[in-house]
Amino acid sequence: xxxxxxxxxxxxxxxxxxxxxxxxxxxxxxxxxxxxxxxxxxxxxxxxxxxxxxxxxxxxxxxxxxxxxxxxxxxxxxxxxxxxxxxxxxxxxxxxxxxxxxxxxxxxxxxxxxxxxxxxxxxxxxxxxxxxxxxxxxxxxxxxxxxxxxxxxxxxxxxxxxxxxxxxxxxxxxxxxxxxxxxxxxxxxxxxxxxxxxxxxxxxxxxxxxxxxxxxxxxxxxxxxxxxxxxxxxxxxxxxxxxxxxxxxxxxxxxxxxxxxxxxxxxxxxxxxxxxxxxxxxxxxxxxxxxxxxxxxxxxxxxxxxxxxxxxxxxxxxxxxxxxxxxxxxxxxxxxxxxxxxxxxxxxxxxxxxxxxxxxxxxxxxxxxxxxxxxxxxxxxxxxxxxxxxxxxxxxxxxxxxxxxxxxxxxxxxxxxxxxxxxxxxxxxxxxxxxxxxxxxxxxxxxxxxxxxxxxxxxxxxxxxxxxxxxxxxxxxxxxxxxxxxxxxxxxxxxxxxxxxxxxxxxxxxxxxxxxxxxxxxxxxxxxxxxxxxxxxxxxxxxxxxxxxxxxxxxxxxxxxxxxxxxxxxxxxxxxxxxxxxxxxxxxxxxxx
Length: 593
Prior knowledge:
This protein is of the alpha+beta class. The protein contains 16 helices and 22 strands.
């Protein structure tokens, strides 16, 4: 290429030298007969000046419009005093053009190439190649690239081996809905795109690879939201001869290295650890945001015998009473409190009680049902001061946790209690191994069926009908950043007999387990080492680090919430010939009248 400099890389040290820059016309200005353009490429913008004395060049400059692709040769000079732009990396210099070539023109655009343009997401994705030109979006992908390279560099230095695993695999009965791929060479049979390389990386441990990693594409055919896509990228790690602490330490070291090298930010390790039970109790979430202090307080024992029937009866039926303190300054009217009641109703709550703290004590229409001692305990346990609003939810532990957890986040946002500059990492550990599926009348793995139970809970695997079955704890761990699950992992089951027992506990019969996982069970019989690992959602990590709410902002060609691509109009129909080759016949559907 003739180019000598990227636009954003022209510096004060280049003053007096001739440069060749190429890019897109970001903006054009005509100031008293002198034409200026901002020329943009992936590294930034530089100002180019065209003087009317050079008639041939000036006549070309007058034809320039937004997004024309040009090549410019010129001399770098200091900007005149008073015209510097401190908001640009190149704001102290400009290029005086000696030659210009229009490489390509551009018609009127569907939207402005600007970080401040307001356009619908469908239009942005339809013209994604234009959207990607925006400086902010381009910067996202330069940072994403640096994070990827830093990841590989760090893991290589730690002795990890990068191994690619298949995209076409076998369908499994557990986990999210899979994308199915028909096999032309094996008519009537189907591959599944991987939800994760889980079984393959376990088999690599059996093979003796010891430390594996992969920056891998994964696929899930799920309903989408801001932090989900049908195809996504994760950093996948697996290690042999380790326990939970080893995997968490390796993950912390990687995360700390990435933040230091790419963002020049120091992260304190080890990250705090919080048990699943404590997270649900204090924050109402297994991925708590700890950037602000509002915590849920359990008052069940303190109000079990109170005169307020709603509280007393909830506790008597095995439920809980929990409260949340809204700090002074968060003034809520009765109608606003009614709105909060409706909000927690979305999580199954039947109501929301409240009290206000005044200089005369606690006040509300339910205070009369409590003794002075009970009111004193409530105020003391909730660390409540004058001006605070106390909110209470009486229900099952699940409803109370989910309702107050969501309310905690809502109030924090409403009162601007969240410090957006913080990166609060933590580990949530000691998850339940299984959860009950009331519809299917069976246990489901909370993470996946290859997660090892705690050694001291192994005996509980023998009887799925035991009342204690739901108390089995997993050797699992999730890494959380600012209230978002960044990734999760576990120590795996490495003994064939225990893996078979786990399948039986989950009501996966021997025939089905052999059909779906027979190759893994056989591998475990050939001297499998103890092993464990973790997968971090790389897209989500990038979005959080760059202050974006949606992972679509850090994926080059994302899908819409309907899992469609407006750019290519995918998914689309295929020809009858292709279907015939695959041995597939589409079911006829009624045509709309």
